[in-house]
Amino acid sequence: MEDMKMTEMQALFIPASKRQRPTVFSYMKNGKKHWGIRFFDVGGEYRQDRLGITNKTLARDELSKRKNEVLLAGQAGKASVKVETKGCPTLKEYAEDYLKERKAELGKQTHQVYDCYLQKHIIPALGAKHIDQITPGMVQSFKSDRLASGAASATVVKDLMILSGIFRMAENNEIVTRNPVRLTKKPKVRNTIVRWLSETEETAILSQAARYPNSLLRSAIIFAIHSGLREQEQCQLPWADVNFDRRIITIRDTKNGDDREVDMSETLYQLLLKIPTRFNCAYVFTNGKTKKPYKCFNNTLWRKVLRNAGVKGLRWHDLRHTFGSRLRQRGVPLETIAELMGHKSLAMTLRYAHLDSASRSDAVRRLDQRPAVPQPADQPKAANQ
Predict the structure, then answer these.
(1) Biggest alpha carbon distance in the chain?
(2) Which of 259, 210, 209, 249 is nearest to 226 (CA)?
(3) pTM
């Protein structure tokens, strides 16, 4: 009879699937691998405990101990074994582990972009939830809310890509059994439409930005329009890479992995000479309060300036588009624009091709010109027969 009872208890450990079985699992914390256990409780509930230990053998010993506790609790008629379980980490907690784990693989600027997206978009919406509780429906709602708030499709795709990376690492560490982002349909991204700043909009925005003299926002806007730098390239630009003698700005470790040089216009040259951080800070755009380089410019003050200026549908990245658009409108060859903007392929620069209105007008005007009708050549007179 006792043997029969033990057999019934041991039946609780028959896994419902290959993923659900008593086992040890690893997870990352503070950049180090730690170990936890998963087990079936008396009533068959699948539970887990993040032990916080770095020794796999000790974790296995703890699992054996936990199995025995479950058997004893069942024999005593208890509904559950009384143990302290920490459960899965929250998304915010695991995102910190994810960034530390990926830091060596990602470039400095990319790592900062990931951190910015997490802090601004993902963690405020999902950070308090335990990652094993986040469902495909929650991810779908997050996507829908982001799009409804006016976020660009490309930005939301980036959000989902980072979120999916977190769950991929959690899957590999056996903290979750599935990635809910995989079941979420990504929004379509259309990069063919280019939004750039008109002269009137520029005047209105700079006028509003001037109302905040303690901020470098106005200088940052002018810099972006006249340099074409990506937001993170501008945020992380050190004074050491600004050469006033050659009037050259050097961008290190770009998105494409290469360095590139950007020539200064006279406007950009004069602007940089007047930025006060030149004398006491390592970075061109240093936050006066934190004494650290700005993490991003697409912040509350930027959105307030846009709102007060009456400018709608403009992102910070569109200042980079303004740089490329104005160059093309002034007849600069696409190859030169691609080099200045750091495009890896000319296909990225072709979005500005239609903006050279002078070339297009000249092309269609040629249709108004009637080609000269070729006259038959004079035939030699036939010799008299």
Answers:
(1) 135
(2) 249
(3) 0.55
Q: In what order do the strands lie in the sheet with 23-29?
A: 23-29, 32-40, 46-53
Where does a domain end: 133, 155, 183? Answer: 183
Query: For residues 285 and 234, is the Cβ–Cβ distance under 8 A?
Result: yes
Interval 280-304: pLDDT, tens: 899 999 988 888 888 888 888 999 9
Token pair in block for residue 194? 């280019």
Locus of tokens 């006491």: 280
Question: Considering the domain boundaries, does residue 374 fall inside one?
Answer: no
Q: Could you tell me the residue range of the domain that residue 137 belongs to?
A: 91-183
Q: Quick one: DSSP state of residue 268?
A: H
Do 326 and 338 meet the contact criterion of CB atoms below 8 Å apart?
no
Report DSSP state, residue 118: I
Average pLDDT value for residue range 151-178:
89
Q: Is 289 helix (H, G, I), strand (E, B) or coil?
A: coil
Round to whole Å and give the CA distance between 334 and 347: 10
Residue with the bigger pLDDT between 109 and 228: it is 228
DSSP for residue 291 = S
Please state the φ and ψ torsions of residue 242, each to the nearest 5 degrees: -105, 110
Question: Cα(191)–Cα(152) distance, rounded to whole angstroms?
Answer: 10
Q: Same domain for 348 and 217? A: yes
Question: Is position 376 within any domain?
Answer: no
Residues 176 and 317 in one domain: no
Model confidence pLDDT, tens digit, residues 76-93: 777 666 544 456 789 999
Is residue 34 a contact partner of residue 50, using CB atoms and an 8 Å limit? yes
Asked, for residue 138, whether it belongs to a domain, the answer is yes
